[in-house]
Amino acid sequence: MATLRQLEYLVTVVDTGSFTRAAEQLHVTQPALSHQIRALERSVGGPLLERLPRSVRLTPTGRAVLPYARAALSDAERLHSAAARAAGLDEGELEVATVYSISLGPLPAVLRSWRERHPGVRIRLREYPHAAQLQAAMAAGRADLAVGPAPAGWEGPVRDLGVEEFVLVLPPGERAQAGRVPLAALADRDWVHYAPGNGLAEVLDQACARAGFQPRVAVRTEQTAAAPLLAAAGLGPALVPATVLPPGFDGPVVHPDPPVRRTLTAYTRTRPDRLTTAFAELLAQEICVLPARLRLPD
Length: 298
Known about the structure:
Elements: H1 4-16, H2 19-26, H3 30-44, E1 49-51, E2 56-58, H4 60-87, E3 92-99, H5 100-104, H6 107-117, E4 121-128, H7 131-139, E5 145-149, E6 158-169, E7 180-182, E8 190-194, H8 199-210, E9 216-221, H9 226-232, E10 238-241, E11 253-257, E12 261-267, H10 274-286
Parallel strand pairs: 3-4, 3-5, 7-11, 8-9
Antiparallel strand pairs: 1-2, 5-12, 6-10, 6-11, 6-12
Helix pairs in contact: 1-2, 1-3, 1-4, 2-3, 6-10
């Protein structure tokens, strides 16, 4: 198999017209240059150059090979240039995997900020309904970086992004006087629940189990964004990540007691490159896990 170095040697000999001048330009000895050319000729199955007393001449095979040698060297140069631009955060593509609630809630503002800073870097977003699916996709190499709940037993680098808080959206007319409502006080209610494949279904079931009851289901939705709207329509209380509530949402919103929280992280399989590291840094700096309007007073 021809190497890029051998192709470079061939092109340089042809362009300079001399093994001697080519060796000088390449900063190698003439015997080393001749050895690499002979190795290339063995690789392609025949002579490429005819050695004349004062010059060199391409053989028919050499004339056939030369355009591809030049193209390979040009492609290699473009490859290195692209890598350098990506390392400089000027160009490239970053694949980010996450769960539905995060792509709906805290991630868009971070992506907007990234786009303003690095408009030449494209983001490909992969979304999953459950944290286990996100972790499996990341382990299978389907993205450069995952943003989601803390992964279980993950062996690669994990970066803590903060603690996401859940809130209760109540049906109209049930505005609570206190900042928190005991979950147990809602044990006899029919709930806006999530489809079994949505990871938030487990969050709700586990929170209610800790409060001593199993939630009755009024309706199940696969779409995280639909849960607060269904609650506001009067179908029952909904437990939602605080970040998914749209700006201006005017339904009754309170905090559950005890609090329902989960740690958000960014994680990769191996030590991330500069592009992935820069995105993780921006995530850590700008992600909002609890909107200011929903924070309880100290």
